[in-house]
Amino acid sequence: MLLEVRGLYAGYKQGTVLQGVDLELDSGRVLGLLGRNGVGKSTLVNTLMGLVRSSAGSVTVDGRALAGRRADVVARAGVAIVPQGRRVWPNLTVQEHFALAERRRRSSDWTTERVLQLLPRLGERRDQEAATLSGGEQQMLAIARALLTGPRLMLLDEPSEGLAPAIVEQIADAITGMRDEGVAILLVEQDLHLAFSVCSEVAVMDRGVIAHRATTADFRRDPATAHRLLGVA
User: Fold this and answer.
1) Which domains does the chain have, with CATH numbers?
2) Mapping DSSP to helix (H, G, I), strand (E, B) and coil, where does residue 22 land?
3) What pTM did the predictor assign?
4) Strands across the sheet containing 15-25
5) 230 vs 196: CA distance, rounded Å
6) pLDDT truncated to tens, each residue of the chain (233 aa)?
7) Are 118 and 148 in contact (CB under 8 A)?
8) Strand runs (DSSP E) across the chain, as ranges?
């Protein structure tokens, strides 16, 4: 198992958000992390990345203990994040984003050329500053930047937020491409159509814990659970 999380607690000065999360994810799998707003999804992703410090519990990636480690240590262990809101550097070109990401690359087959095969639109925008890109292109740039570090585990936080349906389909294609190359993907997503189209399993968070986990097919056949945990029909 690539990622194993056991009894993870984390939070902020205002209080504890994660209340003992247990989770596992293997290479080449996409797990959708669903839940209402405020239940701890982004906190979990940021804690796994080392951006929020855990107070108890364990996180291992390929057997390496990472709970409480700095984000740069987590990144060198093969974890990358595409944060909510993209957070690309507005005044840097696409190519400059690539160059900075490649400096942090682990031994990996994810070269610029290979990333552009997955996200060809960026090849047409290599000399443009990120601020001039569309929202969808900025999201693709954030994904490309993360891929160029050579991750084994990719954390995607709301990648479809604010994007048109046609662009969301391109994001889905990119996720599928990463999965097929053996990258494990934890996908935080409100767009159930996207989550159901790319995820083999879904886990639902509620009040800081994983309250339910099932295959995507089983979850879709269980509308009562979806309504109870997500408020959808």
Assistant:
1) 3-230 (3.40.50.300)
2) strand
3) 0.94
4) 15-25, 3-12, 54-61, 64-65
5) 14
6) 999 999 999 999 889 999 999 999 999 999 999 999 999 999 999 999 999 999 999 999 999 999 999 999 999 999 999 998 888 999 999 999 999 988 777 666 788 988 999 999 999 999 999 999 999 999 999 999 999 999 999 999 999 988 899 999 999 999 999 999 999 999 999 999 999 999 999 999 999 999 999 999 999 999 999 899 998 75
7) no
8) 3-12, 15-25, 30-34, 54-61, 64-65, 79-82, 153-157, 184-188, 201-206, 209-215
Alpha-carbon span 71 to 47, nearest angstrom: 9
Residue 72, burial from CB neighbour count under 10 angstroms (0-12, 13-18, 19+):
exposed
Token couple for 88 = 């690309």
Is there a contact between 167 and 141 (Cβ–Cβ < 8 Å)?
Answer: no
